[in-house]
Amino acid sequence: MKRFKHCLCFLALTCLSSLTAFSQEGVIDSSHVVTLRIDPQSARGAAVSQIFDEVKFVPLETTRESLFGNISELKISGNKFLIYDYDTKAVLVFTNEGKYLTKIDAAKLQTEKADKEKAVTHGFTLVKEGNTEYIAVYTPNNVQYFTLEGNFVKKTKNFNYYSPKLSFANSDVVIRPYTYIKKGKDSTQYSVVTIDKKTKDTVGYFKRDPKFFEKDDWYGDDPITKYNDSEAFYTNYYDYRLYKLTAKKMELAYKFIFPAINTLPKDFITNPIYVKKRFEYFEKNKKTIHGIGSSYLIGDQLYLKLSNIFWDKDQKKSLIYNTKTTELLSFQDLEPDSLSSFLPVTDSGFAYDFENRGFLAYEDKKFYTSYSALAMFTFKERSAGKTNKYPPLLENYFKTGDRKSNPVIIILKPKQI
Amino acid sequence: MRAHFLLLLSIFCLGTGYSFAQTTPPAPTGTIKGVVRDTVHNYVLKAATVSIYKADNTVINYQLSNNYGEFKFSNLPIDKPLRLDISNVGYQTIQKNITIPKGQTLLDLKNVIINPQDVNLQEVTVTVPPISYNNDTLEINAIAFKLDTNATVEDLLKKVPNITVWGDGIITVNGREVKQLTVNGKQFFGGDNKIALQNIPKNALEKIQIFNTADRDKPLDSNLVANLKLKKGKDRSYFGKISAGYGTDKHYQFDGNLNFSTPKLQLSVIGASNDINKIPNDINTLIRNSTYKGVGTSVEYQSDFRQTGLNKGNVAGAQMTYNFTPDSKDWNNKSSLTADYYFKNLESSNIGDSQTITTIADNNQLYANSSTTSSNTSDRHRFNSIYNYYKKSHRLDLSESFNTEKGDNSNSSIRSAQNNAGQLTSTNNSNGQSNYTNTDFTFRASYNYQNYNNWKQRFKSLNASYDVSMSNRNNDRTEITAFRDLLNDANNRDFNRKYLTDSKNLSQTMTLGLPNLKSIFFGNANLSGFDAEITGKLVLTNNQEHNFIEDFVNGNYQQNSYLSNNLKTNVTDFTPGISVSKTFYKNLSNRYYKNLTIKVTAAQQVINQDNKSDRSFQNIKRNYNNFVPTISVNALNLQTGSYQENLMVSYRTDVQAPTIYQLAPLTDSTNLYNLQRGNLNLREEIKRSININFNHYDMKSKNTLYFNVYTSAGIVENDIVDSTFIDEQNRRTVYLTNANGNKYINLMGDIRKSFKFKTSELQLGFNTSFNFSKNPTYTNTLFNFSNNFNTNNSVKTTYTYKDKLGIEASQGISTNLAKQSALGTSYKNIGLTTSFSGNYNFTKKFSLSSNINFNNNNPSVGETINFAIWNANATYRFTKGNNAEVKFSALDLLRQNKAIINSVGVNSFTTSTKNVLQQYFMVTLSYYPRKFGANATKK
Question: Which domain CATH number covers B181?
Fold first, then answer.
């Protein structure tokens, strides 16, 4: 699955050839680095209501048309949920109360005679043009535009424009991963590039071999996670450092030290014996943390995801570290209480949606995750007798749905401590 | 009538199921509940082991705390001292003495605080909890259960709450069936659960590990494995049996079996001798039935009353498994050798009578009677070995089988024929004597390469196999025959002929398959689910036959120059093919997974047959060239957590080339009732068939339904059929010819459904088969179709109550019908079998069992035959370890056993009876030695 993500990123490799403005390789400021010693197994538990202000379950409506597998991508636009489902190769639109609105699947995509393949969705992004937001759907042939109501608008061959990017509020700077910068005849690939849309100034960080993905195997998450209007975290593969990226600069924020049993060998990156043998190494050393996944800083709380490709339920990988008190909490030990109607807030320990994907989104200071109807109905059974009052959306879901219904989105609003 | 009785019986079973469930004592009981909490880390413990003991340290019940850290025990005694233990890996064990106060029914302990173990503390006395939960594995610790010193693993499992060992050997954990039982991660002596459960002493066991191997994406599917982990040093063991029995009519049986096991080696040595039809054909059946049996509810291993003739047998053998990688747990890292040797000596005498009615024309039938006696002795040696080597993507299997048999046979038969008017027309009496030596050797090597893990590699898989088989048959035979034509003396014939035949056969088969052509040429491109495969099959056969035949003429044996012959046949059979397949997938996470694969194979079969003989008319070369396409459709429907269904449909073409014995045989004229002639104009038979298989099985944990339906229909073009000329004396000359119009359709089905109640289980099974065929044939030049229709249906219900009582009832009905419209004849036979068996264990030491089956045979010709076989056994076990046993058996109590075989042919109906084993009583003494580990307590 993770390899698949890489393929997508690879497809989206962009080349900023039209750049004429000033471009340079960025310098990383490491003067404010904080070293954290973390033993994941020592993490404590807490009640759900101690961590979150609000927990909301939004079951997604199940009809013949809206039935889908699970959520591989989630985007939030106003009061709408946009979901990409790999099973049905569709982008589905629901209201934030779970009501089904429309979907864009193969039937709506346009295929022309000249196209090599029949159009299917390979993913989507939200694009703002003027004041209107569009769903831009990638197909093998082109990128097709739809309104949020599901109506076709246009299509374009320009894949570059839609490569994954992030922008900060009140700034003209956008961030792009895996990007080439052209200087004269030479072009250099960087892991991450910041571009000022006005001045066209570009700064690249972490120079990379153009055949990066061919020469070795890389296991990890998306390298960039934005956690507020002006900051994002960036990580490298097989590295225990977390960088803070702003419109102006990149700085080394945290350096982690884990217990020896969880730590990669020092020469893991440099020693050629590990090249293309990464998986074999992980297999032999199942407890190693092989990198830092999507992480967020919310107030003083550092939400951390430690990468490990195995499924040992006892290994704690999703943690909350309080940078003030140094208290360490583990997600899998969160105790459901009345705030969550005594239902778990993730499916960890039962299924693997949370473990595989982490949070689906963090927007407007809220985390989004999901689990299947199978998980929800099983959790309800297991918590029998704890409460007989569920919020209306859930109450209705339990009445009308079953184990084969559509998944449930869980919205968690963390306390801003 | 019987059906009604059966229905009643199954209702009775259901009824008892409920009544047993209702017999729980009505005394007031109490409940204890609480939450296990680690206050240091501030969380609840989700899978801590919580157990409740009585004052005498016996476990009443245990639980794992749930997702909320909670535990709750009901049905506990009130006002009695109890002990509550809570343990978890990495924590100090809590022990609390508690009592539910009189007058209360609920004791809420609220938060029970458990403290992490301080690693610096020296020597913490750790009491082992009865169960613990260790990273997805439920472990049952043998030491926590107090049992007497000779208890077995089965006894232990019966003591563990929430685990049930069922009468049929199935184990369930909280109602979920354990699909596989291993000992130290390996199959134990052939994989029969009972061998392991009833022979391994509880004291040799460290723990039982129970885990689910189902796909991690399907958390509610059930595929439990139970592994018996032996204590260190106890993985060296032996167990076995010695037994002797003597009975009425001088019947006897002796048995001896010893099984040794070390971490790398498992070895069994076995021998048996008896005259009561307990002589299995393979060593595994014998071993399975010779080890210690707990007091179960299944029908015992008993005399096979269906076997015909009177048989005395001696068997002996050995079997071994050697693991070169004893510690490997991965299926793809395995290297093991298994080998077995089996010797079987059999002496049998058979007496049989048969009557055959053959229709030769409308309203013209012939009646043939025959009575035969024969006696046979044979010595057979068989040696098999299999070597498996699996390493990552490579898989190599080598197997060998060597078989040699030496025997002699003498037989005599008296046969006669009557015409339509009932007049005796001819007799044919013969005496024969033969001795033979057959030797067969087969070797098979297959190699398989599969690498679907490395997505970058284009070369994904390869299959190759090589088979060679050699056989050598020597036969020395004398036949003395006298044919008397009672209507015309001139046709009388007498023969005294000696046959010396020696045939050698060498056959080699090579196959090669190169699947996944798509990835070789197009890498990981999808190509809309299309893929291709190249296959090839080459069969080379070489046959040599030397026949030396002599006739007794004028006082001495003289060579028969017609039948004495040397014949060599070489056959090359080559089938190259190319397949194109397309696969459709449909997946909805956590809901279902469906796929459909359609595969079309175009193949050409080229057969080249070359015969060289001393007889010039047998020097025949033939070539057959046919297009043999195959189409197959495979569909899978997997509904997460509920059921799985598979559908397979295939269309195939099979070519059968006529052999030299069909084209141009040397006709032996001794048997005038059957003279075989050839036909040089025979063409190859081409069978086109459609085969459909559908099965369904539940992946739920209880009350599972399973069914399987198989149907096959085909048309044979150029079917090689008999064209028989029969005269009034029943002399037959059979010519072969091609005919069209042979059609068939077969349907087979199998349904099983089980119902589990609290302490009992009911299983229902239904088996059905329907076969229809339309066979063309010629009788005295009259072309005729024989329509044959056979059915077989049976229902079976099994009821078990704990390990105390087992009842089984079954009803079967079979019909055979043959109709020849051109001859205006039809034959019919209906057979009914009803059987009941029951088993009741009074104590662990004493049990009674009995079984009876009623047989009713109702042919359209001849009389209805009824007989019943009733058997009963009483078993008493003694000594401390229940290692000694005395058993009294009474078999065929009603002395009614008969062997009646009715068969319907193309235009004939045969009724025959054979001599069989009948009533006997026997007393058997057995001793079961057992020892596990170097210093295990010896029993």
Answer: 2.170.130.10
Segments making up each domain of chain A, as ranges: 2-414
With cut-offs at 50, 70 and 90, classify the pLDDT of residue B564. very high
Find the CB nearest B587 among A87, A313, A352: A87
The model's pTM is: 0.77
The nearest alpha carbon in chain B to A404 belongs to B591
Counting the structural domains of chain B, the total is: 1
Tell me which residue of B664, B782, B777 sits closest to B721, measured CA to CA: B777
| CATH for the A2-414 domain, from 1.10.238, 1.10.357, 2.60.40, 2.130.10 | 2.130.10
Here the ipTM equals 0.80
* A8, pLDDT greater than 60: no
Question: B71 vs chain A: nearest CA distance in angstroms?
Answer: 12
Nearest to B885 by CA among B244, B197, B238: B244
B-side interface with A, Cβ within 8 Å?
Answer: 38, 40-44, 46, 66-69, 135-136, 216-217, 219-220, 455, 587-591, 640-641
Write out the residue range of the structural domain in which residue B190 sits. Answer: 136-235
What is the reported pLDDT for B1?
A: 39
pLDDT at res. B205: 87
- Put simply, the answer to whether A375 touches B590 (Cβ < 8 Å) is yes
pLDDT tens per residue, range A155-200: 888 766 555 678 887 788 888 888 888 777 788 888 898 888 888 8
Place of tokens 């909805």: B588
Query: Quick one: what percent of chain A has pLDDT higher than 70?
Result: 93
| DSSP H or E segment with residue B33 | strand B30-38
Confidence band, pLDDT 50/70/90 cuts, at residue A123: confident
Q: Which of B582, B725, B718, B708 is nearest to B657 (CA)?
A: B718
Q: Does A377 touch chain B (CB under 8 A)?
A: no
Between chain A and chain B, the number of residue pairs with CB atoms below 8 A apart is: 70
Q: A314 to chain B: which residues are within 8 Å by CB?
A: 135
B286 domain-assigned: no
Cβ atoms of B341 and B365 within 8 Å: the answer is: no
Across the interface, do B68 and A87 touch by the CB < 8 Å criterion? no
Which residues of chain A have a CB within 8 Å of the CB of B587? 69, 87
Is the pLDDT score of A119 beyond 70? Answer: yes
Q: What average pLDDT does the structure give for chain A?
A: 86
Q: ∠ at Cα B330 (B326, B332), nearest 5°?
A: 105
Inter-residue contact B75 to B81 (CB < 8 Å)? no
Task: Please report the pLDDT score of residue B122 as a whole number.
Answer: 47
Partners of residue A403 in chain B, C-beta under 8 Å: 641
B164 belongs to a structural domain: yes
Residue of A nearest to B456 (CA): A214
pLDDT at B13: 35
Angle at B739 between CA B737 and CA B744, to 5 degrees: 125
Helix (H, G, I), strand (E, B) or coil at B357: strand
Residue of A nearest to B37 (CA): A45
DSSP string, B352-402: EEEEEEEEEETTEEEEEEEEEEEEEEEEEEEEEEEEEEEETTEEEEEEEEE
pLDDT at B348 over 70: yes
| Residue among A67, A352, A382 whose CB faces B67 most closely | A382
Tell me if B67 and A342 make a contact (CB, 8 A cut-off): no
Sort out which chain A residues have CB atoms less than 8 A from B67's CB and list them. 344, 349, 379, 382-383
In a domain, B298, yes or no: no
- Give the span between the Cα atoms of B548 and B2, in whole angstroms: 58
3-class state of residue B458 by DSSP? coil
- Tell if the CB–CB gap between B43 and A333 is shorter than 8 Å: yes
Instruction: Name the range with the highest mean pLDDT among A211-225, B537-551, B845-859.
Output: B537-551
Contact B217 A45 (CB under 8 A): no
How many whole angstroms separate alpha carbon A373 and alpha carbon A405? 6
Q: Tell me, yes or no, whether B468 lies in a domain.
A: no
- Of A35-44, B207-216, B348-357, which range is least confident? B207-216
